[in-house]
Amino acid sequence: MRCFQRLWVLVTLGVLFAGVVAANVPESAFNKDPWPAAKEGPVKVFILAGQSNMQGHAALRTLEYLIYNAETAAEYQQWKDRDGRWVERRDVWVWTTDGNRSGNLKPGFGASEMKMGPELGFGWVMGEHLSEQVLLIKTCWGGRSVRRDFLPPSAEMPPAGQLAKELENARKKDANVTMADIKSRYGKAYRDMIAHVNDVLERLKEHFPAYDEKRGYELAGFVWFQGWNDMVDGQQREEKYAAYMVRLGQLIDD
Length: 254
Known about the structure:
A hairpin with a 4-residue loop joins strand 3 (89-96) and strand 4. The strands form two sheets. Strands 4-3-6-1-7 form a five-stranded mixed β-sheet, with helices on both faces. A two-stranded antiparallel ribbon has the order 2-5. It is of the alpha/beta class. The termini are far apart. It contains twelve helices and seven strands.
C-alpha cells in the first residue's frame, strides 16, 4: 500500500510540475507550419550588407526573455513553439558570410549561432509582405569603412601622398609590403560582397535544395547598415563627413 501511495505522490507531483512548465511556455499559435515554402514566382533576393551592426551581436537570451516575459510575449512568442524550440520560416531563406551558414530564417543567423541581427526582423516583415520565396544574403564584416574597405569602383582612390605614407607605415611591420598590397585594401569588402552574392546565386540549389530552378530569382533590394568606422575617423569628422556622403552615393549607384 505504501508503494502505491508513493507512486501516487510522484504522479501528482509530476502533473503539477508539468503544469508549471506549461505555464511558462508561450501560448503560441505557430505549432503547425504557418509558413510553407512559396510555390510560385521567382525567389525575391535581398542583399544585407554592412559591418558589425549588420552582422548582429544581440544575444538569443535577450529574445528568450522577450518571449517569456508576460508584457512582451504577444509580440515575440511566434519565434518559439510550445516545446521551447526555435521556429523556422520556410518561406524565408538566409545565407551569411559568418561561417557560410544557410537555411530557413530563425534566430541564430547573427555574428554566431548564438546571436541575431537585422535579418530576423527584416526577414519576418518581407516574409509576411511577399507571396514569393524570400532569400536574404548577408555580406557583412565588423570594422569596415566606406573610405577604404567598401570603397566603390566609381570612387577616387586616396591621393598618392597618403598611399605612400600608408606604405611606409606598413613596411615598419613587414618590409615586403608593396604599393599593390596597399591599394588592394581599398574596395576589398565591396568586391567580396559582390563575389559572395554571385557565388550564392550560382549555387542556390546547393545551399537551398528546395529551390526550383525553373522559377528562378530576381534581385529585389539592398539593405545597408554601416557607418561607425567612418564616423570615428578623425579626418572625416573634420570635413563634416562630406566625402562620406559622396562615397555612399557612389556605392548605391554602383
